[in-house]
Fold this protein.
Amino acid sequence: MKIVVLKFGGTSVGNIDRIKKVAKIIASYKRKKLNVIVVSSAMSGTTNDLIRKTEELSNNFDSAEYDVLLSSGEQAACALIAGRLKHLGLKARSWMSWQLPIITEGPYSASRISKINKTKILTFMKTGGIPIITGFQGINLDSRITTLGRGGTDASAIMLAKFFNADACDIYTDVDGVYTTDPRNHSKAKKISKISYDEMLEMASLGAKVMQPTSVQDAKLNNINFSVKSSFEKKRGTLITGTKKIFSNQIITGITSTKNDAKVTIVGVKDKPGVAAAVFKPLSLNQINVDMVVQNISLNGKETDLTFTIKSEDLKKTEKIIKKNKRISFRKFSYDNNVSKVSIVGVGMITTPGITYRMFQALASKKINIMVISTSEIKISVLISNKQIKKAVAALHKEFKLD
Ligand code: ADP
Ligand code: ASP
Ligand code: MG
């Protein structure tokens, strides 16, 4: 039996008209005699509203209850889709992830799907039914509800495609594919017809919100090809697949930028072994993700400055942890809350020399100051003032002939 997984994101189910449109899309697959598994996010805004409520009640809301609460948005969206499909005369029903169940591992709010029990869904599909499953969630081995991190319905879709051995996985969203940069921020962005898992993973991790990074990693690990498409207009989307299927002479595939980064500098730390570990260990124990790191070469061999970036929401906690860390001594803790990371991504840079120079030159020509640099085989990231993001993205988009 040919199975297709269809994922609908928050804006795609954002109001009653949108849900009617989604039901039509689902019906069109059914007319092609395909077995459809639908997975939906909550209506847009719902998850944010729920988070706001927890913040009003506690600055340390219980993590298990947080996930129970956040998972509720998807329940409503799935019931609405199933109800509309039934109205159209189709056989459909909603399933909360715990009813299958979808089993997850890992901490609350950042769990990952480890297993999906398929029995109920397969039985229902054999009778022509369309299952509508809540995205973004599962249950853990204590039978408590868990969630998969923001944007986690993407991961639900990929893992449903894996466990049901689906023939296709279509991610329906509010843009008609993956673009060379966020099309909402740069009008010259171009749609990419095919992109490799590695490039998509870098772009997603470096700020392209269109796919949740974990979901791309799951797709890569399990070799699940998937497409990103628009639920608003019927257009060809973007295929995300293994490198072998992609032929492109573009050196750079995409440009991304992040929001809400902060740069921290600890001035005058001792320049001796173990200091960096002593700084970062308590941060990692507190789930603070450290991103870019630079340690200046010390001039006198005794003291140096350590600079790193974190999410700005972690800044207060980081300052507190560093200041009460008895294992380090330093002269000053300084920070800049108005920074962003701009990155260029592309497998083409592995074989093309001079990309770093071209990136720096393009930024310099627009008088954009680079604060921190980090690179991997297929990406170069720079930290700049967040006031200059738009200008930087436009300059790089042009420099690498993506306009
Ligand atoms: P959904 O609710 O469907 O999961 P998201 O809001 O999570 O949708 O992701 C879609 C958004 O991703 C788009 O509206 C777009 O602004 C943003 N985006 C960022 N970078 C890119 C990119 N390179 N290509 C396409 N969309 C992007
Ligand atoms: N509703 C969840 C969120 O807003 C999951 C998702 O949209 O994929 O993060
Ligand atoms: Mg999303």
About this structure: Residues 9-12, 41, 151, 173-175, 178-179, 181-184, 208-210, 254 surround adenosine-5'-diphosphate (ligand 1) (CB under 6 Å). The first strand starts at residue 3 and ends at 8.
